[in-house]
């Protein structure tokens, strides 16, 4: 999952900090999700997908 989020961020030129702010979590937490160091809750995953305009 982490690779896919990173790919989408790069393709849409979105920064981790910007996505974190949109989703309502810390930049550190979002960075951990993007890097595969933590797994988001389903609710957070849905917010990430909505913010990126993709399906889960």
Any overview of this molecule?
The protein is mostly helical and 56 residues long. It has a single domain (2-52), classed as lambda repressor-like DNA-binding domains (434 Repressor (Amino-terminal Domain)). Helix content is 66%, strand content 0%. It has four helices and no strands. α2 packs across α4 (42-52). It is globular and about 20 Å long. The relative contact order is 0.20. It holds the Pfam family HTH_26.
Q: Helical content, roughly? A: 55-70%
The biggest beta sheet is recorded as: none
SSE pattern, N- to C-terminal: HHHH
Structural class: mainly alpha
The count of β-strands is 0
Strand fraction: under 5%
Q: What is the CATH domain class?
A: Mainly Alpha
Query: Uncertain regions: pLDDT < 50 for 5+ in a row?
Result: none
Shape: globular
Second-tier CATH architecture: Orthogonal Bundle
Give the helix tally. 4
Number of domains: 1
Brief rundown of the structure:
The protein has 56 residues and is mainly alpha-helical. It contains four helices and no strands.
């Amino acid at each position: 999952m982490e690779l896919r989020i990173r790919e989408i961020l790069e393709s849409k030129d979105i920064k981790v900090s910007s996505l974190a702010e949109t989703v309502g979590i810390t930049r550190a937490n979002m960075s951990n999700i993007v890097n595969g160091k933590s797994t988001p809750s389903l609710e957070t995953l849905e917010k990430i997908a909505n913010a990126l305009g993709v399906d889960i």
